[in-house]
Amino acid sequence: MDALLEIKNLKVTFLNPKEPAEAVMRAVDGVSLDIQKNSFTSIVGESGSGKTVTALSICRLTSAHDIRGQIIYKTETQERVDLLKISQDKLLKVRGKVIAYIFQDPGTSLNPVMRVGEQIVEAAKIHFHWSANEAKLKALEAIRAVKLKDPWRITRSFPHELSGGMKQRVMIAMALIMEPKILIADEPTTALDAATEFEMMALLAELKKSKALTILFVTHDLSLAMGHSNKIIVMQKGKVVERMEKNKDGFLPKEIYTKRLFNAQVIGLKPKSIIEV
Q1: Do 141 and 188 touch, CB atoms closer than 8 A?
Q2: For a tag site, which of 114, 123, 169, 208 has the least CB within 10 Å?
């Protein structure tokens, strides 16, 4: 099966502010992976592994000094588009409409002085030329889709009036209102309690089916990824160290690092506590 999104030999470097001007840090070092249509693929790794930089690079949202490689998106007409080479104007048409991104902290992603309903439809209203009434109806529809109660009250609320889990659902609604093909969820459950995390993952799984979404899930939690993914990419120090496909027995880690990552979470350690292999 052809990949909907394919990353080839991605290398991302940043300037090191603590070193001379010519010094750089390579956050992603030769990463290659492919994402199949309608799949749930997870990128897993500890802090500093390069997982988020890899995801951000897909939409060219990093402040990187240099990005090399290819990120190929296959359109509905079977055209292969390199997202690293297209113009900024074309890229803006891809962001949101084709690939939507949910950031880790909804508190910093939402405008604190703008009502939630207005934020949900802000970009889509311009893109689809909706009237004010159409936008209101679309906002209510999007809020219902992410299982938030009392949609009308939510649209009239400001972000500070919502819980962390509710704000994260609002971010998902904001992403889905543009009807994207691919949804990138960057550690969307990190700040949530266990019960809300479970609900959030169930919601993503349900939306994947109902909206025919392709999901790229970024997390430090290997056990969480194992419960929902078709494929898992494990990263360490900017490189892919293991690729796992789900089979009848689930996922079977082979690499020592992956096993330690899983075992550390089982006994309650944070990923950064893992002893280097």
Answers
A1: no
A2: 114
Tell me the fold of 40-49+87-273.
Rossmann fold (3.40.50)
Token duo for residue 187: 């550690």
Predicted pLDDT of residue 276: 36
Note the pLDDT tens digit of each residue in 244-257.
999 888 888 999 99
| Rg of the chain on CA atoms, in Å | 19
The per-residue pLDDT for range 131-180, each reduced to its tens digit, is: 888 888 989 999 999 999 999 999 999 999 999 889 999 999 999 998 99
Residues whose CB is less than 8 angstroms from the CB of residue 225 and which lie 6 or more positions away in sequence, other chains included:
42, 44, 217, 219, 232
Stretch (H or E) spanning 3: strand 3-15
- Residue 204 DSSP SS3: helix
Alpha helices in the chain, H assignment, sequence order: 51-58, 88-94, 106-109, 116-128, 132-145, 151-156, 164-176, 194-210, 222-226, 256-266
* pTM, rounded to two decimals: 0.89
